[in-house]
Design goal:
heterodimer; A: about 250 residues; alpha/beta; Rossmann fold; 6-stranded mixed beta sheet; 4-stranded antiparallel beta sheet; about 40% helix; B: about 375 residues; mainly alpha; 4 strands
Chain lengths: ~250, ~375
């Protein structure tokens, strides 16, 4: 067994013994999870398993009652707020696609583009040629180049999901948290989303929370099963889905 | 930031608005001072001051639109910043009276002599200087907004709760300024002004200059607001309005952006108040009354929020209607009319006069693309 501190320093994200409760309900109990740099991980679990709460903890929305949450081996995420964590390099995609409806698609990407986020810098901001190129590249990747000056509110559900993924790319985070990217998508869109995510995973670490087993199979990555706020099983999908406890939790007794 | 967007060119509507204001700034004072009184085009001094008042309200409306229309902060206390700017100007004007007051005290304003005070309270120091007073017109509302916003936005007070505490803020100031021992003239406020920068405030030429100055400040306020909302910061602010937590997860410190626009907006409201006071000749605590702040929200809603020009338009239209209404036999029904107007606009014109007109114009253009080319630009 590797000593804990070695795991900590070699990890990108390190959660150990994290617990949080809301009004006495323990949403997360003793959750431990390690993500290596460059890794892509799928998280599955039945409703109420604590998947979204886990994301809230990592991104600073919820403060854990106890436990360690470290980023890059040295930064304690429990002491930082959402904006500071985002600027460290953790991007988040919500379950329900959340884009800025009253901005154009291009402006949505511009707002997400990695840059200084201070009041003064944004007030006197000028979009440099390199920034514009980056925006164009991302619009190409998410296949919304032709729609760049349309309002984001006019996009279809699937396109909004992609726009949000594009915004994550623009942020250029070290770690992406993606909550149910295939929810509400057609089969074709789901397959394309899997390709997109795999492409992103080549140079980013990614955590994907998903219900759709077919989608996870397509990703072909290590899977962590959450149940009642703790890790139930971890490993390749085939191994995990052969686990009796997992089957029991998923299918009910 | 402002130069860039001036070069790039502003929308046709904005240009119309700015052109109109510039024309008003020059023509109205000229028509008042140079044309004989029997001329058809002569503008009486009372009318000029009345319109000067409307334009002060227009600046207040633009300042509210900046926080409400663009940032989603529904401030029901913007009248407080307006009144504070007004009081700062009023204090300067009081100090200019000198020994010409009823009691002839060279230092103390009449109400202080009346209260048996023997020396000027410390917070009145410096107000005999015009530059200092003008600085305070910006600093006092700005500082209050900054401190208030600092606490409110950091603790993430939003929506209706924020509206309620802004309302409480202006109400608290109303009660405070009513007290005689606050040293701001209590119930009567500050009045009986004589001079501004050595010119008689009652004189026709001074009134004309004040009117022109109001136009100039409205243009300046509009350009600052337009510059802010068209910058990337403006995009962030709209993003905060529409999806606050998304903006936060993108790494923007939402509280600081809100604080920035709220403070700028309060300073702008302060300037509007400062221009208002010499033109109406009085400032008293009733300017803090919560109803005033709510009325400002109605102007913006009627004109069209999130458009800046619409806010100014709404302020002028509603106040003009108020003047017409309250001077005739319909006077007792003004509040009913105002309420009805608000309900009507909310139900049938959610984008206000300007938004509805723009939609209508856009649809028309789409339907008859050829015809629209021949037609003149939309009049304001």
């Amino acid at each position: 067994m590797i000593p804990a501190h070695a795991t900590l320093t070699s990890s990108l994200l390190y959660l150990d013994g994290v617990s949080v409760s809301f009004d006495g309900f323990k949403a997360i109990r003793g959750l431990s999870l390690v993500i290596a740099p460059g890794e892509m991980r799928a998280i599955i679990g039945p409703n109420g398993a604590g998947k979204t709460t886990m994301m809230d903890i990592i991104t600073g929305k919820t403060r854990p009652d106890e436990g360690t949450v470290m980023f890059g081996g040295s930064v304690d995420l429990t002491r930082l707020d959402e904006a500071a964590i985002a600027n460290l390099g953790i991007g988040r995609k919500f379950q329900k696609p959340t884009v800025f409806d009253f901005h154009t698609i291009e402006d949505n990407i511009l707002l997400a583009l990695k840059s200084q986020r201070t009041v003064a810098r944004t007030l006197f901001w000028k979009t440099a040629a390199t920034d514009q190129k980056r925006i164009d590249d991302i619009l190409g990747i998410i296949k919304l180049g032709d729609a760049r000056s349309r309002l984001a509110g006019s996009l279809s559900h699937g396109q909004k999901q992609w726009l949000e993924i594009g915004m994550l790319l623009a942020q250029d985070p070290k770690l992406l948290l993606v909550d149910e990217p295939a929810a509400g998508m057609t089969d074709g869109e789901t397959a394309e989303t899997a390709v997109l995510l795999k492409e992103i995973a080549r140079d980013h670490s990614v955590i994907v929370v998903e219900h759709d087993m077919g989608f996870i199979r397509e990703l072909g990555v290590k899977v962590t099963v959450l149940h009642e706020g703790a890790v139930l099983a971890e490993g390749p999908l085939d191994q995990v889905s052969a686990n009796e406890r997992v089957v029991e939790v998923y299918l009910g007794r | 930031m402002i130069t860039r967007f001036l070069i790039q060119g502003i929308g046709r509507l904005d240009l119309t608005f700015l052109g109109l204001l510039a024309a008003l700034a020059v023509l109205v004072p000229l028509a008042n001072l140079l044309l004989p009184e029997n001329s058809v085009l002569h503008v009486p001094t009372s009318t000029m001051s009345l319109w000067g008042k409307y334009l002060c309200y227009a600046l207040l409306a633009i300042s509210l639109d900046l926080v409400w229309g663009y940032c989603g902060i529904l401030s029901l206390g913007h009248g407080a910043f307006f009144a504070l700017g007004g009081y700062a100007m009023g204090m300067y004007l009081m100090r200019q009276i000198g020994s010409r007051g009823v009691y002839g005290n060279p230092v103390l304003p009449d109400f202080m002599v009346f209260l048996n005070w023997h020396e000027l309270p410390w917070y009145w120091y410096g107000f005999s200087s015009f530059p200092f007073a003008m600085l305070m017109v910006l600093v006092v509302p700005g500082l209050l907004a900054f401190v208030f916003g600092w606490f409110a936005f950091r603790s993430r007070v939003t929506g209706v709760y924020l509206s309620i505490i802004t309302q409480a803020l202006t109400y608290a100031l109303l009660l405070a300024f009513f007290r005689n021992d606050m040293g701001f003239g209590g119930n009567n406020g500050l009045t009986d002004f004589k001079d501004i920068l050595g010119f008689n405030v009652q004189a026709q030429a001074t009134r004309a200059a004040l009117f022109a100055m109001t136009c100039v400040m409205l243009i300046a306020g509009f350009l600052i607001a337009r510059g802010i909302v068209d910058s990337k910061l403006g995009k962030v602010v709209i993003a905060i309005r529409d999806a606050e937590s998304r903006t936060r997860f993108l790494g923007y410190r939402v509280d600081r952006f809100k604080l920035f626009v709220f403070t700028v907006s309060a300073c702008m409201a302060g300037v509007a108040g400062a221009l208002y006071v010499p033109q109406v000749g009085i400032i008293n605590p009733s300017e803090f009354s919560p109803a005033n702040s709510i009325e400002t929200v109605i102007w913006v809603a009627v004109g069209g929020r999130g458009t800046l020009v619409g806010a100014a338009l709404g302020a002028v239209v509603v106040n003009y209607a108020k003047t017409v209404f309250t001077s005739g036999f319909m006077a007792p029904y003004w509040l009913f009319a105002l309420g009805a107007l608000f309900v009507f606009v909310t139900l049938f014109m959610p984008k206000g006069i300007l938004g509805t007109a723009q939609d209508w114009w856009g649809r028309r253009r789409k339907r008859e693309p050829a015809a629209s080319l021949a037609e003149p630009a939309p009049a304001e």
